[in-house]
Amino acid sequence: MSYANEMSARPESADERTLAARLRLAVVRLNRRLRAQRSEDRTVTLTQFSALSTLHKSGPMSPGELAARERVQPPSMTRVISALEESGLLTRSPHPTDGRQTVIEASAAGKAYIAAEVSARERWLDERLAELSEDERTVLRRAADIIDRMAGT
Amino acid sequence: MSYANEMSARPESADERTLAARLRLAVVRLNRRLRAQRSEDRTVTLTQFSALSTLHKSGPMSPGELAARERVQPPSMTRVISALEESGLLTRSPHPTDGRQTVIEASAAGKAYIAAEVSARERWLDERLAELSEDERTVLRRAADIIDRMAGT
DNA sequence: CTCATTTCGTTAGCATAGCTCACGATTCCG
DNA sequence: CGGAATCGTGAGCTATGCTAACGAAATGAG
User: Which residues of B are less than 8 Å from A31 in CB distance?
Assistant: First the structure.
C-alpha cells in the first residue's frame, strides 16, 4: 500500500523561520484551500462571491468603489461584475446624475443566493474553525483585523 | 480634483461578520498583495519561490513529496519545477533505486538566490510587520501556526 | 460657449496558478 | 509472469490578476 517515499528531506516542523516567511506560507496555503472549495457550486467563484458579499453588505455603489474595497484594479472588477450580471445575481443601472458611472447592486436572486450559500461556501472553513479552541479563534479574529489593516495600506 | 463618488453604500467598518467571512477576506486580500510583490524580480514568481524555499529548507526530495508539502497537486508542481530547472535554480537527478521517481534539489545557484533574495522578496511584508506592535506580531505568529495546521488537514 | 483635461468603465491582451484527465514508464506483488 | 499500483508528466481548461489603451461623459479655464 505505502511505498517508500523517504529521502533525506527533513520532516516538516513548527519551524524557526522568520515571521514574514511563516505568514506568507500560511496565507498562500489557506488561500489555495479556500479557492478549492468551489467544486459543487459550478457557477460562482470565490472572487465573485467575495465581491457579491461586499456589495450586498455595503449597499449599491459604483464598480470603481467596489474594486477599491476589494483591493483590485477596476478592469479586474469589470469581469467579475459581468459574470455576476450574466448569472442574474447583480444588476447594473445608470447613475442618476453622472453618465459615466453605473450603479451596481445585488439583485433579489443575488441576496437570496448569499443567504442560502454563505454557510455552504464557508462550510469547510467553519468546520476547521469549530475544531479550534476559543483562544485560538480569538487569535485568528485579531489576526484577521491586523492582516486587513496591513493589506489595506 | 475630487469627484462625487458617494452612493448609498455604507462605510467600510470593522464589522460584525462571522469569523470565517472575516478570515477569508483577510487571507484573500493579503494573498493578492503578496503576489503583486514580484515587480522587480522578473524571473521567479511567488509560487516558485515558495517551492524553492521549502525544497532548500527540507532538503532533496521527490516532486510528489514537494507537491504534498506545498499542498498542491503533482501536475501543478511539475510546471513549477520545470521553470526552476530552466532558471538553473534546481536540479533533477534520477532516483538511485526507483526508476519512476526523480530527486530534485536546490542547486548552488538556487541556494545563493534564496540567501540573497529572501529579504528582498519579503521586504514589503517585512516593512508592514515592522510597523506593528510586538503584541500584534505575536498574534500573527500564533495565527500562522493555527492557519497552517488548518490548511494541512 | 468652447475645448483641453480628467474621470469612469470597459476592452484587449498577457501572465500566473491552480485543477482534472490521460498516459507511459516503472515497480510491486500474487 | 502479468495485473495493479505509483510516479512524473503532458494536454487542456478555468480563474484571477495586471497594464495599456480607448470612448463617453463631466469639469473647468478662458
Answer: 27-28, 31
The answer to whether the Cβ–Cβ distance between A26 and B148 falls below 8 Å is: yes
Q: Which residue do the cell numbers 503576489 mark?
A: B35
Question: What is the ipTM metric for this complex?
Answer: 0.79
Same domain, A77 and A116: yes
Candidates A4, A19, A65; nearest CB to B137: A19
Q: Are residues A112 and A147 in the same domain?
A: no
Nucleotide nearest to A70 (CA to C1'): D17
The whole-number pLDDT of residue A88 equals: 94
Q: Is residue B33 part of a domain?
A: no
Does any CB of chain B come closer than 8 Å to the CB of residue A23? yes
Same domain, yes or no: B80 and B108: yes
Query: Which residues of chain A carry a pLDDT beneath 70?
Result: 1-8, 10, 12-17, 38-42, 118-121, 153
Q: Is residue B14 part of a domain?
A: no
> What tens digit of pLDDT does each residue of A87-103 get?
999 999 999 999 999 99
Residue numbers of the domain that contains B140: 122-153
Helices (H), B37-107: 46-58, 63-69, 74-86
Where do runs of H (alpha helix) occur along A1-153?
19-36, 46-58, 63-69, 74-86, 108-121, 123-130, 134-152
User: What pLDDT does residue A6 have?
Assistant: 45
pLDDT in tens, B104-138: 999 999 999 888 776 666 778 888 899 999 999 99
Q: Are residues A65 and A81 in the same domain?
A: yes
Q: Do B139 and A137 touch (CB under 8 A)?
A: no
**What are phi and psi for residue B61, nearest 5 degrees?**
-160, 180
CA of A75 to C1' of C11 (A): 9
Q: How far is the CA of A72 from the C1' of C8 (A)?
A: 15
Residues B56/B114, Cβ–Cβ less than 8 Å: yes
B140: in domain: yes
Count of domains for chain B: 2
